[in-house]
Amino acid sequence: MVKTGKKILTEDEIIAKWDKKLGCMVSIVCITFNHERFIDSAISSFLEQETIYPFEIIIHDDASTDNTANIIKNYLDKYPNIIKVILQTENQYSKGNKASDLCFRMAEGKYIATCEGDDFWCDSTKLNKQVGFLEANPDYVISCHNAFIIDENNNETSPSKLTSEQMRDYNAEELIKTDAFLLTLSWVFRNIIDSNIPEKRNVVNGDTFMISLLGLYGKSKYHSDIKPAAYRVHSNGIWSSLNEVKKLTTLINTWYWLQVYHARIASGWDEHFLLLHSKSTLKRLFVCKSKTSLLTLMFGFFFKKMYKKLKIKN
Predict the structure, then answer these.
(1) How far is it, in rounded angstroms, from Cα 288 to Cα 281?
(2) Residue 276's beta-bridge partner residues?
(3) Contact 56/104 with Cβ under 8 angstroms?
(4) DSSP conformational letter for 89
(5) In 3-state terms, what secondary structure has residue 191?
(6) What is the CATH number of domain 11-232?
(7) Which CA distances in Å does 239 have to 107, 243, 249?
(8) Is the pTM of this model over 0.90?
(9) How far is CA 6 from the centre of its chain?
(10) Which run of H or E residues covers position 24?
(11) d(Cα 263, Cα 313) in Å, to the nearest integer?
(12) SS3 (DSSP) at 30
């Protein structure tokens, strides 16, 4: 499956189709870095959306060293009333600053849609269907769909990113526990999450953290009636470039900070993430085959937790 190459409307033509009484309904957030080969496909797929819902496009470029910023500027010149741009002069990711949080703070839409600069959408009715569903179903907090996988040369390597078991709705508990697998490039969710959560700043895979937060507000909807988007795997992808040990390490960190977050807000789910943290820590140590480190970490980990509980009681 490839992009259709559909003609993009002018800014005036796009805005003319919107229901102006609604105000800004969707903020499309696009994070990009050194995506000069891909960013054009991403932005054009946003502008191809056929919808009555007014939208804005927020693009954050994290000080790319290639031609990505210039491509973004060209779109900004043509769509100044739709596109908002953040062009960093220093890379923020390397400093531990999250581009998504900055974009979420800027978002004026009632809903937020996400798609990184190396992926793209393939269904021009996507936003209309997802926003329309969420408007009619207040018990759902997020709406998603499938994607196929392509390489850096646009060759399809898999027709589906999701397994058949993952192509379904999830209830709120499954979201909170992160038992749901929702593709970030397909998200449309209610703009209700605080972008200044301190625990979230400490995790690498913020999408996992976000799913748990969103579950506190409702369920997720899977749309089989939306054409799959394009999920790209390439050598410069942050997550796909990590080996299994590093991926497990980032998850251990995420479980820890989710435990801290849920304990702070007294949601009742902190013990669930404490258990996930413990299991993942043991798994990583067995993978690394370090018995000494295993015993040391087990002792230190449980001592720390016991100390905290005793401190709270006293």
Answers:
(1) 11
(2) none
(3) no
(4) S
(5) coil
(6) 3.90.550.10
(7) 25, 9, 12
(8) no
(9) 26
(10) none
(11) 15
(12) strand
Please state the separation of Cα 230 from the chain's center in Å: 15
Q: How far apart are CA 229 and CA 72, in angstroms?
A: 21
Place of tokens 């000069």: 36
Q: How far apart are CA 29 and CA 107, in angstroms?
A: 8
| Tokens 């795997």 sit on residue | 233
Name the CA dihedral angle for 235, 86, 112, 157, rounded to a multiple of 10 degrees. -20
Pull the structure tokens for residue 13: 């033509």
User: Running DSSP on this structure, what letter comes out for residue 186?
Assistant: G
In terms of Cβ atoms closer than 10 Å to its own Cβ (0-12, 13-18, 19+), residue 306 is exposed
pLDDT tens digits, the chain, 314 residues: what are they?
345 457 899 999 999 999 999 999 999 999 999 999 999 999 999 999 999 999 999 999 999 999 999 999 999 999 999 999 999 999 998 888 889 999 999 999 999 999 999 999 999 999 999 999 999 999 999 999 999 999 999 999 999 999 999 999 999 999 999 999 999 999 999 999 988 899 998 998 889 999 999 999 999 999 999 999 999 997 765 555 556 777 788 889 999 999 999 999 999 999 999 999 888 887 766 666 554 454 555 545 554 555 455 445 44
> Positive or negative, the Cα torsion across 259, 265, 268, 269?
negative
29's tokens? 């957030």
Sheet containing 156-158: order of strands: 156-158, 147-150, 229-232
Query: What's the CA gap between 49 and 26, in Å, rounded?
Result: 11
59: closest CA among 46, 50, 51, 205?
46
Under a CB-based contact definition with an 8 Å cutoff, are residues 205 and 245 in contact? no
Q: Which of 40, 250, 45 is nearest to 147 (CA)?
A: 45
| Residue 49 burial (C-beta neighbours within 10 Å; 0-12, 13-18, 19+) | buried
